[in-house]
Amino acid sequence: MENEYAIILQNVSKKYRLYKNKKDRMKEALHPLGKKLHKDFYAINDLSLDIKKGEILGIVGKNGSGKSTLLKLIAGVIEPTDGRIITKGDIVPLLELGSGFNPEYTGLENIYFYCSIMGLSRKETDLKLKEITDFADIGDFIYQPIKTYSSGMKARLAFAVSVNIDPDILILDEVLAVGDELFRRKSYAKMEEFFKAGKTILYVSHSANTVNELCSKAILLDTGEIILRGEPKQVTAFYHKLIFAKKENKDKVLNEIKLLNKGEKILADDIQTNDDTSNKINTLLDKDIDDQSYYIHDFKPKSSIRYDNFDVNISDYFIKTTDGRKVNALVQNRDYVYGFNVSFGIDAEKVRFGTSFKTEKGQIISGAAYPYDDSYIEKINKGQKFNIEIKFKCTLLPANYYLTTGIKGLINEDIVFLNRIEDILVFKVIKNTVDQYWGVVNLNQRLTVTDIT
Q: How much is the pLDDT for 97?
């Protein structure tokens, strides 16, 4: 059973001693009675985690939650104060790119130095050398000392060495955006190879969209503890709910998340349906539709998450056809309207209304806000009510999709969500064409094939 896991953490803690000033460290060490002058700080606190081979684990949490410390513990960069860490396979950590280089060595010498640390022989490094130098693409600087490199060049070389060693376990800490545009695209392509090759990957990011797109599981860290684990879409949604919560409600939201985690399950099935609904959906998918859209009862999201709101209420949300019929089974290439009402129980300044269309995994397909430029509605008075309508053409390909809606405004000199509902609606897109397209969006491509023999 244990063989299916690449990483196992058992009751792991990492404790640091915090002193008010540097002198207290020396005073404590020399104090005849052993007086304690420090405060214990647990960056990681009694954390247990099992990561299966081939799993891509997203790690999210606010700054200071313990994300980087956790990665360094798994990578072996630092030792745990308590607990046990078991890893199986070669690990390459892409944490602080270039931090392991010797500044006096040339780039070429550092390649051999780093590869030797990773267990590669000189002959094995010789075989990978051209691949590494071509990927880094820093020209003759490869023969110059690292201390003459810019930070970008050092990061490029470090990234090139790390990803071409072919590890079993790859640890990424917000490093997919190094270098210029061409190098970033090359980096993403290399990462896609790892994701598809069945490697075990730990990925820390502040981008919920990237975590949802790339990862198979996710965890939410807070003060060195895992407070939620499960499907990336759900974990990142609760992560956003926590960080956007009002200060006075953060503890309440935190407890809500912890209670959810106690059951150690998050709903993987995001849609509420009954057998009749499922049968009707299958019937709709099996036939072509010419000009009719449908409303399917009990086809609703179970994954809806409501943020704290500042007495700004979102209600009466719907999708309708251009002639006013309420629908949630949409036909390709037809025009529709998504609408909702908003009522203000407070005076609000610098207000913007927005909405996002998302895939089942939570990846944003398209978003829009009003006003459309970077301006705001300067002032809305308590008691005002608004109807918001977004007209769109359904160019999406057959699948289930979700809508998220939010209102931002100025509170205590900060722009915050006055209200936001993740997965407020779910809708299905029905095929009405025999054309062979795949992906998410139909761009109406027309291929022309000409025999030029």
A: 65
Strand 329-331 to 414-430 pairing? parallel
Could you tell me the two tokens for 124?
Answer: 């094995």
Which residues neighbour 293 within 8 Å (Cβ) at sequence distance 6 or greater? 321, 325, 327, 329, 330, 331, 334, 336, 430
Cβ atoms of residues 17 and 39 within 8 Å: yes
pLDDT of 60 above 90: yes
For the record, the structure tokens of 259 come out as 């209670």
- Residues 231-248 have pLDDT tens digits of 999 899 999 999 888 888
The 3-state secondary structure of 215-271, one letter per residue:
CCEEEEEECCEEEEEECHHHHHHHHHHHHCCCHHHHHHHHHHHHHHHHCCCCCCCCE
The predicted model scores a pTM of 0.78
Sign of CA dihedral 377, 381, 382, 386: negative
pLDDT greater than 60 at residue 280: no
The rounded distance, in Å, linking the Cα atoms of 302 and 422 is: 11
Q: What domains sit in the chain, N to C, each tagged with a CATH number?
A: 2-89+168-262 (3.40.50.300), 271-430 (2.70.50.60)
